[in-house]
Amino acid sequence: MLVIEKTNFSLHNPSWRFTLGPETYETKDTPRRVEVIREALAADSRFRFRKARRFPETNLSRLHPYHDFIRKTSRSARRTGEEIYPDLFPGEGARLPRKLDALWGGLYCTDAVTPIMGRTYEVARGSAEAAMTGAQLLLDGYANEVYALCRPSGHHAGPRVFGGYCYFNNVAAAVEILSAGGPVAVLDIDYHHGNGNQEFFEERKDVFTCSIHGDPKREYPYFWGYRSERGVGQAVGTNLNLPLPLGTGDAAYLKALDRALAAIRRFRPTALVVGAGFDTHAMDPIGGFALTTEVYVEIGRRLARTERPVLICQEGGYNVEVLGACVHGLLSGFLEERQSG
Ligand SMILES: [Zn+2]
After folding, report:
1. Ligand 1 centroid – CA 105 distance (Å)
2. Fewer CB within 10 Å, N- or C-terminus of the chain?
């Protein structure tokens, strides 16, 4: 299986850490996450690494109105060495500034845990380019399955705002390329609802989006991810949210996965893009499910049975002790099923 990567990922390394009462919080999105995945896959000769290619800036600027804000802010952070966080979120109705300024981040960013640093633009663009390279390989018929080792993640970045460690939506950028070949399905299996994916495509009948995630009544991103969100206008019926309760284990998770895959089959896509997060693992420091390391092999097998070209993009997963094994398990299960079938 081809693994598409960009080697500059460690240049984006946020350092935020704060204490609130007895609790200390710090970023869980460390470059180490990519290193452990890389090590796990490099030890297995079935995985071949290939560098992501360059794509024009317009592939991202036409998706995200804040593209230039991130590019320019990143450039100025590079000059000053700053790590830039918004500290004011003006909400709806704010007047747009005439000239972009780093202080205006609260217009576009939903939180204070997704900073812009000197290399953030370059690394986030590279992450999306890994996904787009994979999509192009599938579209050209060069491969039938590709894994894009993306970091930062993308599924919380939408057509208006970014946040949740995400800057550009890697999956959406890939879908835009694959759409040239016909209808596309997106399945997000990160612990958190893929609100960016949903918002991008909720009015499009040719893109089916589905997300299995922790119930947003209790979990980030709170404002999206409910069962009642089924698509908008002509596209009603092309979004499926499957929120699951805290503590969900292997059996209940696989049942939801089967439901998602059945809906995807009925949609008859020409390709499937999977946003693969591993913060569903029982030992994950952020997620609240109870999945075992072994179940990812079975998840991979079931994804493989879709009998479509599949692009798997890395999303979350923050326990670096198990992350490598989980990713390797999912991709191995996928490959074994495809080779036996
Ligand atoms: Zn997540």
Report:
1. 22
2. C
Exposure of 262 by Cβ count < 10 A (0-12 exposed, 13-18 middle, 19+ buried)? exposed
Q: Which domain holds residue 167?
A: 2-12+30-50+129-340
Q: Are 306 and 272 in contact (CB under 8 A)?
A: yes
Which residues have CB atoms below 5 A from the ion given as ligand 1? Answer: 190-192, 277, 279, 316
* Phi, psi of 245, rounded to the nearest 5 degrees: -75, 160
CA of 141 to the centre of ligand 1 (A): 31
How far, in Å, from the CA of 315 to the mean position of ligand 1? 7
As for how many domains the chain has, the answer is 1
Phi, psi of 217 (to 5 degrees): -60, -30
Rounded to the nearest whole angstrom, what is the distance from the C-alpha of residue 168 to the centroid of ligand 1?
15
CA of 235 to the centre of ligand 1 (A): 26
CA-to-CA dists, residue 25 to 18, 62, 116, angstroms: 5, 34, 18
The answer, as to whether pTM is greater than 0.85, is yes
Question: Is the pLDDT confidence value at 102 over 80?
Answer: no
Task: Note whether residue 298 is domain-resident.
Answer: yes
115: Cβ–Cβ under 8 A, 6 or more apart, which residues?
Answer: 14, 16, 83, 84, 85
**Across all residues in the chain, what is the average pLDDT?**
96
Give 61: exposed, middle or buried? Use CB within 10 Å, 0-12, 13-18, 19+. middle
Q: How many CB atoms lie within 10 A of CB 293?
A: 16
Residue 98 scores a pLDDT above 90:
no
| 25 found inside a domain | no
Distance 190 CA to ligand 1 centre (A): 5
Structure tokens at 180: 């040239």
Residue 80 domain flag: no
**3 state DSSP class of 128:** helix
Q: 281 catalytic, yes or no?
A: no
> Pick the catalytic residue: 64, 156, 193, 328?
156
Q: Return the axis-axis angle of helices 120-139 and 170-178, rounded to nearest 10°.
A: 30
Burial class (CB in 10 A: 0-12, 13-18, 19+), 33: buried
